[in-house]
Amino acid sequence: LIFDPDDQTGWSTERFQQKGDYLLFELKETTKLYGISILTSTERYETPQELRIEGSENGIDWEILPLTYQTHSDYAFSPVSIKYIKLILEQNNDEIAWTVNDVMFHLASNE
Question: Where are the beta strands (DSSP E) in 1-111?
Fold first, then answer.
């Protein structure tokens, strides 16, 4: 489960953030998304300092999803149909690890 109501469970690199580290999600089927939220138990602490988001329908051909909105935990982009989504760190951080307690994908309408 990527999302559960317990914000005390999660995943961490348990080391400082390093450029090029990534998380890769494979959805059950191709889905139209417009955003993603990454939640930690400490809000801004342990969130990515710079994040690039890429999407793919086949897991081979990737496109960067330019962000249209961003906070420390929410990322929005133009609606796109994808089956794979990759979250890639764009810079090192020698003070904090990368922790993910929950991930929410924001579905776009099929209109």
Answer: 11-12, 22-39, 51-56, 63-64, 67-70, 74-89, 99-100, 102-107
